[in-house]
Amino acid sequence: MTEFERLATIEPKPTLTHDFRKLAEYLFKNWYIESIDSKFEIFEAEFLLQTKSEVHNDPNIDASDLQCQFGNWYIPNGGIDITFGCENYAASIFLRALKDMNTGEMIIGPQRCFESLFRNGGKVIDPNPPARLVKTDHLQDVELWNVPRVNLPIGENSADQARQLKYLFRPYRFVRTDMEDFQDKYMAMLYFEKIKKEELRIKREEKIYQKYLDAYDTGYYADKLDTVWRISSRSLRLAALLGFVHHYHKEHVL
């Protein structure tokens, strides 16, 4: 078993923030991705794991047979995964941001990551993969924020709403602290302030952020979820949902 496989072999628990952080730090600091045309540092990624038992039954992964294996490229809807599953669970690392090491260009967004890595697919009979993880000889000095994931499905009338809420705000998304901007940064700021009791030091518009703070309070002090669903803005509705879940289910946001 390689060092990567050993660190990626996780004992499933109800909350996997600590385990995912250890794996994210190892991956971001020690590995880069080499494609046919370039090399890429990983700047942002989300972690997903669904057990075949009820221990960590996260609904936000396809749970494909390929995701129950270690070391595959897997193409979910709108992006690219690195799998690290096994016979007991499906698990993937969903890439959200890369940096081209040759040009310095930031590749932001899962679809753009996929296109950048596999735009040149190589020869059709060449056995070498068009993109692969490579261990670096120079340990990268990076720090990571872990914040809630992005664009996970949740609906007022969903039959699976309880399980969706259980995993909606888990901080399984890892972002390098030298990212200048990233998607849903205001939700990340809100999570840091309200859950971690810390400040996420990144540029923000105070008037916009205040709307998130107000929405959070609406959800936190709501007696029932109906109040939250009446908020028309999806982003502010998520902020209110964070408040509601933090108040009534604190274990779901850790």
How would you characterize this protein structure?
By secondary structure, this protein is α+β, with helices and mostly antiparallel strands. Strands 1, 2, 3, 4, 5, 6, 7, 8 and 9 form a nine-stranded antiparallel β-sheet that branches. α5 packs across α6 (206-220) and α6 packs across α8. It contains eight helices and nine strands. The chain has helices at residues 3-8, 17-30, 110-118, 161-168, 185-196, 206-220, 226-229, 234-248, and strands at residues 31-35, 39-51, 70-74, 81-84, 89-100, 106-108, 131-135, 144-147, 173-176. The protein is globular. β1 and β2 form a beta hairpin.
Could you give the order of the helices and strands? HHEEEEEEHEEHEHHHH
Strand content range: 15-25%
Q: What is the 3D form?
A: globular
Q: Total number of helical segments?
A: 8
Radius of gyration: 19 Å
Terminal CA distance: 30 Å
**What are the segments in which pLDDT stays under 50 over at least 5 consecutive residues?**
none
Class by alpha and beta content: alpha+beta
Overall residue-averaged pLDDT value: 93
Q: Could you give the count of β-strands?
A: 9
Oligomer: single chain
